[in-house]
Amino acid sequence: MTDEIPWTDYYRENEGREPRALLLEVLGSFERAGEAVDLGCGAGIDTLAMLERGWQVFATDAEEAAIQRTRGRVPPELQPRLQTRVTPMEDVELPAVDLLWASFSLFFCDPARFADVWARIGRVVVPGGRFAGQLLGDRDTWAPDEDISAFSEAGARALFEGWTLERFEEEENDGDACDGPKHWHVFHAVATARSS
């Protein structure tokens, strides 16, 4: 299914969107800017929002077009605080960070490798740092696809054992996606890494 998604069309259709509200809320909860990863950064809208607020950002995506758009979006004066990498999330080496932002991206992780990706996320978020992003629910149109990582509510909550779960909201509705109409079932989560 991920091979069928017209990513260039998706980037173009979302070109004018605002940064995700959840991201802005999470950024506002930090006392100071720090180091962040934008995992599956897409066209870089959220990356730019972090940079504009003083963060150092490591933006990564499997699509070369995404990284090109991200770099093209960031003005020269903010470029020194941006690192980019074209690598699938299953293979990328992540730096230690205060915030790992995964906006509608973890859906596309190879299910066979999700546990490893999630464990790496847990290792790179420093104590007191946060994970924020979305997980796909099991009633979503895409959930049955063998290339998609989707979870029941209990399964999604279980991922945060060892974290302090600050926010966990379920959203379910009919709408559109880059490949047409679909039923959305998504969990929005924010969690703080505890000291080990």
Task: Describe the overall structure.
With 196 residues, the protein is α/β, with parallel strands linked by helices. It has one domain (33-193): 3-Layer(aba) Sandwich (Rossmann fold). It contains 6 helices and 8 strands; from the N terminus they run H-H-E-H-E-H-E-E-H-E-E-H-E-E. Strands 1, 2, 3, 4, 5, 6, 7 and 8 form an 8-stranded mixed beta sheet that branches. Strand 7 and strand 8 (180-193) form a beta hairpin. The chain is globular and about 45 Å long. It starts with 6 loop residues before the first helix and ends with a strand.
Layout of helices and strands, plus pairs?
Blueprint: H1 7-13, H2 21-28, E1 35-39, H3 45-52, E2 56-61, H4 64-73, E3 82-86, E4 97-102, H5 114-124, E5 125-137, E6 150-151, H6 153-158, E7 163-177, E8 180-193
Parallel strand pairs: 1-2, 1-4, 2-3, 4-5, 5-6
Antiparallel strand pairs: 5-8, 7-8
